[in-house]
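Quick illustration, no need to memorize.
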Amino acid sequence: MSQAPEPRKTLDPDQVAFWLARHPDFFVGREGLLQQLRVPHPHIDGAVSLLERLVFDLRQRAEKSEGRLEHLLETARHNEAQYRRLRETLLALVEAEDRDALAQALATQLSEHFQTPMMALWCPASLSDDEPTLPQPPRHVLNQHASARLAALLEGRSSRCSKLSVSDWKCLLPHTTVPRKAGSCAISRLSAGEQLGYLLLASPDPDCYKASMDTLFTEYLGDFVSRLLMRLGHHG
């Protein structure tokens, strides 16, 4: 009586891969085996030689590396351009001789360098007591109603992006044309040891300033404007 054949044993792929990784010299002297190996092509039917597959993989890696490098270069160019625009903006603000000139320079620089359609600078009346005339737009005296609306939009934060309703637009940007529909805004509370008002950047585009956006730029600009307001107030 003949014995039943033993079940055919198959090698576990992971064990093969582990063994080859531990024995990188396995193919030394077995170059013919390398030439015989055929592997699937990732994008076409059929198999190709191991050498062709390696060349393809190396080309793919090179293209990815080039893409990452181009992305880094593009980011560096963008950051440099942002730095130059911010530098020009800050230099123009430092040269302002009074608070109205500061607000006008800020509006001009934001429009030219950062595509900011509208802005308003709201300061409390105490900063205007020594001025012979009322503030000129885009600077406004901070009244109770505007203060309440700005505080409500900030929701307890120092800086925030938000939707801007038509009614709030009329209240907070009275010197501008009111859009037919709600827009968006970025608000920063101005302070330097005391409450100095609010800086409001606005756009009729409801998606220009989204709530999920980072407000680092607005906060930085607000800190700088706050200190200029203090300096100009002391010399006003």
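Residues 29-94 form one domain.
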